[in-house]
């Protein structure tokens, strides 16, 4: 078999595998909780095909500066998902996409972080984006990529926690101010990796 034909057969096999998984994979339920998404301040929408989810936040904001309480320096929102997994496969998240804003004085750092873990495991995977002031942006797409792929249990419906957190640190300049916020989080189908198990 020529190398071209071999590569083509691999591509066809991959597309078939991806399509088979896509037909059976689904998000069946979710729960939101945390200081950044108090009841009534955030909404989650599962797509019509139940294969992706998006969140909108009204008040997911962290601040630091003179007169700002330390409790405002950090905020989080925990998304708990119930995911139906096809038999013989397991999945991992490879990317989380946010729409974020920040305004940071010199010496102030803002951090966007995502941790995810499965209920049956003590392990977790973390992705972080840090912005150092002086910096400002009214709307920016931020992508937190986990340092490692953490795989779901094999072929089982899984409960997965996705914890989004914001932090503003002005410890290097106590008189400086900063703010970071998130308005949306998206987890589309192409942000999920699959493998046989």
Automatic annotation (TrEMBL):
Q: Which UniProt keywords apply?
A: Signal
Q: One Pfam family this chain carries?
A: DUF4360
- Supply the InterPro entries for this chain: DUF4360
Transmembrane feature ranges: none
Task: Give the signal peptide as a residue range, or say none if absent.
Answer: 1-22
Q: What is this protein called?
A: DUF4360 domain-containing protein
Which organism's genome codes for this protein? Panaeolus cyanescens
Its lineage opens with: Eukaryota, Fungi, Dikarya, Basidiomycota, Agaricomycotina
């Amino acid at each position: 078999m020529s190398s071209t034909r071999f590569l083509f057969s691999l591509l066809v096999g991959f597309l078939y595998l991806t399509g088979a998984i896509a037909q059976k994979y689904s998000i069946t339920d979710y729960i939101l909780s945390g200081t950044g998404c108090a009841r009534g301040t955030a909404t989650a929408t599962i797509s019509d095909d139940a294969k992706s989810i998006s969140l909108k936040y009204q008040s997911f904001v962290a601040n630091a500066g003179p007169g700002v309480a330390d409790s405002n320096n950090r905020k989080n929102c925990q998304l708990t998902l119930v995911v139906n997994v096809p038999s013989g496969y397991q999945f991992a998240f490879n990317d989380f996409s946010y729409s974020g804003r920040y305004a940071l004085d010199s010496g102030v750092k803002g951090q966007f972080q995502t941790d995810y873990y499965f209920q049956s495991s003590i392990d977790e995977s973390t992705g972080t984006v840090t912005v150092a002031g002086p910096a400002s942006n009214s709307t920016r797409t931020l992508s937190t990529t986990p340092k490692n792929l953490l795989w779901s249990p094999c072929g089982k419906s899984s409960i997965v926690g996705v914890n989004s957190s914001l932090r503003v640190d002005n410890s290097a300049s106590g008189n400086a101010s900063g703010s970071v916020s998130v308005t949306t989080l998206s987890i589309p189908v192409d942000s999920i990796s699959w493998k046989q198990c």
